[in-house]
Each structure stands twice: as structure tokens, then as C-alpha cells.
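Preliminary data (for renewal application), zinc ion complex.
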Amino acid sequence: MVFGVFLTNGSLETMVFWGRANRCFAGRARWLSEYKREMDDESMVMCEVNQMNADKVRELAKRDEAAVVQFLRDIVAIPSFSTQEENVVKRIAKEMETVGFDEVRIDAVGNVIGRMGNGPVKIMFDNHIDTVGVGDPASWKGRDPFDPKLENGKIWGRGVVDEKAAMASTVYAAKIIKELGLGDQCTVWVVGSAIEEDCDGLTQLHLIQNEGIRPDYVVLGEPTDLNVYRGHRGRVEMIITIKGRSAHAAHCEKGVSALYKAARILLDIEKLNDRLAHDDFLGKGTITASFMDVKTASLNSVPNAAIIYLDRRLTVGETKESALEEIRALPSMGDAEVEILQYEATAWTGKKVEQDKYFPTWVLDEQHVLVQAAVEAIEAARGTKPKVSRWVFSTNGVATMGRLGIPTIGFAPGLEELAHTTDEYINVADLVDAVAGAALIPQTLARRLAK
Ligand SMILES: [Zn+2]
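Predicted structure:
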């Protein structure tokens, strides 16, 4: 059953997208028009309409619970470290075909893309399906990270929060969208993206720039505990190369120690961290010297080179250019040089990929229609209003919104702080809510855009 109802100037118009109307809904529509005669309060009517739709979506999400759980457990059981996602990608493609996606394909860098519908509201659910490693196996408290058990309403395993639960739930959300006949309103892409843990945004950038897929809105599957997130700090990884002059340690006055020069630069970087910008929503910009490599002819020589590695977190208003300039302006830099690190890898498809390690800051306005539609949809799906917040970590939003300017939010089950831990679990109840919420977002967005 399907519907969406537009309200204009307080009048309830049944300009309704009927996909497959059924008798039951026809009855409810009559009830609604009677209801409207009694109620002139537009928001009240809208609320009732949405709630009827939400009830149906929730019913369908609950119906599919066992299938979503099984699909999630299947994809958690397939290890999929960055650049090694082939097997999980093929399993996801199979599920997409089984539930009736209109088109399923795998792109050159190893993303899997399912399309449902071909309507004018183009929305992409992006879920990266690579995971980090498992760390110390002993710290999984007897659980096998690739044998995801269902215990007391929870599923445990590597990647279950980050982000395979979102992958499973959005595939089934798209299935419901199709069942409701909403394909003429929305084009919904569900993407399982590769290599995010190694280089966030890289494969999304490829997908949108080279594969002919251009969404107008993006929903990321990074964990938000079913809240709506709308940004995070950016990041740039830099290296400073410091030159010295080698000499025998017995004649150290004849050399120039790259190590001593580096030490002065490190102290300047520590001070720089204290004066970086602060933003009330995203937090403070930071800089951390994370590693140093020293070149020396022997342990009895003056070091001739040093390389400092920097992790720079960028808040609102900070860019790679401003971050580079700050380093160049440090009093101790002298002839040292700073540059942005490059990422290079080979995707599981064999394609070589590369990108500079710059991940721009992004924030979507809280009043943006995508944020507001998601809040409304999730409230209708769950009965409680979601928080609007931001991540502490980075996501593929650095590409979709940070580099390409496509309005982006996050909505997914799971706790952000469980990502990359050996305690990764998801509540099955949250998984069902995630299906319902994701199924309601595109139609709520379509309705708001049509107003
Ligand atoms: Zn993630």
C-alpha cells in the first residue's frame, strides 16, 4: 500500500501517489477526508497522515526482521578489510537482486550499487562495507568476530556497527519503498562502498564523478544511534621533511642535526595546537605529531634527515590551504618543507586508486530540508524525536558534502563509540527501526520538496 498526501493552504488534497492502492487504504482515505472536515489544523492532519503511513512501514519492517537479521549475520561473517571487499560485495549484490532492486551493479573501484525507482527525488544511502581489523582476538571475550551470534536481542561481530547493520537495513528499506510503489517519486540508490576505513570519501568520489550517479541527497550509514547527524570535523595528513648534514658523531660540530631541527619544530606544533580555532558545534581544530622517521648513516652519526607526520583535525573555516600555511609560518621551520600525504592502493577489482589525504570539514544547516525530513521520518518511525548532532570521527561525507557539496546527513543504528572496538554489537530492535526510518526518509523528503 502506498500513499503520500500533499497539503496546500490547509486543504487536504488526495494528489496521492498511489502505487498499489488497496481497499483498506481507500477506506482510510475516506476516514481522513471526514477527519479533515472536523479539523482545520493542518499540522494535526499531516501528523495523522504520516503516522498512518509510518504504521504501515513499521509493520513491513517488522515483517522482514528475520530476513534482515540473517542478511546482516551473513555479511558480518564475511571478512571485508579495506581493498578486500569482493566476497561481501557479491553477497550484497545477491541480496539486492533477491529483494527486487531495479538495477544492481559493481563499479570499477569495487562499490556495489543497487537502484530502486527512477523518480525525481534522487537520494543515496551510502554504507561502507569494509572494516578495520579485529585487534587482539582474546579481547573479544570468547566471541568470534566473524561468527555473529544473536544473543539476547543483540548481534555481535566486527563491522556490525561500522557499518554492516546500516547496509542490511537500507537494502530492506529500499524493498519496502518498492512495495509501497514509490519508485515514481524517488530514485533510491543503496551503496555498499569500499576502502572507506583506509581513505574516507575516495570510492564515493569515484562513484559520483565517474560512474554517472549523481544523487541530490545522501544519507550515510555511519552509526548515529538512530539520530540525525549533520557534519563532522575534517582532516588533513601532512608530512614535514627536515634536512640536516651528516657528520661523524666524533666531529658533530661539522654536521647539522635534522633531529635537533625537528625537535624545535615539534615544540612549535605543540604550541600551535593550543591556538587553533574552536567551533561550538564541531569542536576545536587540533594538530598531533603522530610519528617521526629519522635518517642517519649510523648510530655514530649526525642525522641527515627527519620526517614528521602530522594529523590535523579541521574545524569550521579551516582548510588544507590554511593548515599548510600555519606550518610554513612556524618560527622554527627554516628550510623544512611541508606537504600533504598521498594515499595509494589497489582496489579488489585490480584498479589502482589514489588521492591526497585531505578530508574537508562539512556541516549541513539544521534547517535544511533533508535534516528536517529525516527528523520527521524518524520520529514517525520510532515515536520519539531524534537528536540532531554530529560525529566525532570522519565519514564518506568528506566527499559527498565536503568536496561535492551534496546535502548529506547520517542516520543508522549503533553507537559511534563501539566502532572499531572489540565490543561491537547492534540491537535487533534498532535494526528494525532503522529499516522503517530509512524507508520513510525518501517519501517524507519528497513530500516536503513538493510543498
Ligand atoms: Zn564507518
